[in-house]
Amino acid sequence: MQLRRFIFVALLACLTVAAIFFVIANMNRSALSGRAITDELSPLVAKYGKPLYSSHEEELIIRDFFQDRRDGIFLDVGAAHYRDRSNTYYLERHLGWSGIAIDAQAKFAADYKTHRPRTRYFALFISDRSNERARLYIGQNDIFSSADRRFTEGYVPVTGVEDVPTITLNDLLTTQRIDHLDFVSMDIELGEPKALAGFDIARYRPQLVGIEAHPEVRQQILDYFQAHGYVLVGKYLRADPQNLWFAPIGASLPEPIRGPRID
């Protein structure tokens, strides 16, 4: 009788130990096989709240980088509507910034004159050469308008075509007597490489550049900034899947904050 009890207790102990090892092994396997990704946007939303004007969370990134600094100078390329989906309206309205806004569509000019007193608006096509004409395909939703018809048609039907005078950023900034920039926003639907080719970034040395980077032109954008002494700001790399954010090599960059894990 005692022998049976001993054998029963021993078997029970062995099964208990085996169960414990099984649970631990599966916990480790789950931890290793799970996605080691954290939500790197949520700390920005927790600190600044939801964006008021920008398309996504660009506004929060800009505020975080500059720590809500006042009275800076911006360059907004592909500015479109004076307020809706704007990366610079918060800077002007709430922080007293001023700057240059450019878009190939002239229809936005009147609202800039009325609602953006600290911004000079230009209806021009930014390119690598001045004093030419560029064809712009207007999308049914005009935010998808582009010089690349296939790009526009990939999102919405083309509803119009306009020939727009071109200018380089260097020429425009020179005529406007701008000698430095704090922030550059660029979103011109595959036109970014040509716009950058006409921009002497070393001369104006913006502290932060936010630029939309579609797959078709992403490598060209990365190559440009590497060649001109700029690096990606790591804090925002996973917080914003739409844009790339660059700062000069050696600049003081914001410390990353780890958000909650995404399971």
Q: Give the second-level CATH assignment, the architecture of the largest domain.
A: 3-Layer(aba) Sandwich
Arithmetic mean of pLDDT: 89
Q: Give the overall shape.
A: globular
What kind of sheet is the major sheet?
7 strands, mixed
* Count of separate DSSP helical elements: 10
Return the string of H and E elements. HEHHEHEHEEEHEHEHHEHEEE
From the N-terminal CA to the C-terminal CA, the straight-line distance is 52 Å
Q: Report Rg.
A: 26 Å
Question: By CATH's scheme, which homologous superfamily of the largest domain applies?
Answer: Vaccinia Virus protein VP39
By helix and strand content, what is the structural category? alpha/beta
CATH class of the largest domain: Alpha Beta
CATH fold descriptor of the largest domain: Rossmann fold
For the secondary structure, the number of strands is 12
Q: What is the number of domains?
A: 2
The portion of residues assigned to helices is: 25-40%
Give unreliable regions as ranges.
17-36
Strand content: 15-25%
Cross-sheet strand order for the largest sheet: 4-3-2-8-9-11-10
Task: Explain what you see.
Helix content is 36%, strand content 22%. The protein is α/β, with parallel strands linked by helices and 263 residues long. The protein folds into 2 domains: 1-34; 39-262, Rossmann fold (3-Layer(aba) Sandwich), CATH 3.40.50. The strands form 3 sheets. It has a 7-stranded mixed β-sheet with strand order 4-3-2-8-9-11-10, sandwiched between helices. The chain has a 3-stranded mixed β-sheet with strand order 5-7-6. The chain is globular.
